[in-house]
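QA checklist item 7 of 12: single-chain prediction sanity check.
[x] sequence parsed
[x] length recorded as 76
[x] structure emitted
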Amino acid sequence: MNTYTRSELALRNGQEREEIWVAYQGIIYDVSHSRHWRSGIHYSHWSGQDLTDELVDAPHGEYVFKRCKVVGKLKD
């Protein structure tokens, strides 16, 4: 599995590149095909970031990532 730095993840925000990625618990997911992430923002959450700490306040659980393609791991 490929690994990516936080800087590389930040480039996948839908603005710098077409890909829209987010990380959760060290795994990076491609959310490009989700209508909720089309602008690179989902409510007050920005793509290209690790959302692990932010999911606590979400109205849903981590199950939402099962719909997304895994693209790699977030490098420590």
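[x] summary fact logged: The longest strand covers residues 69-74.
[ ] second reviewer sign-off
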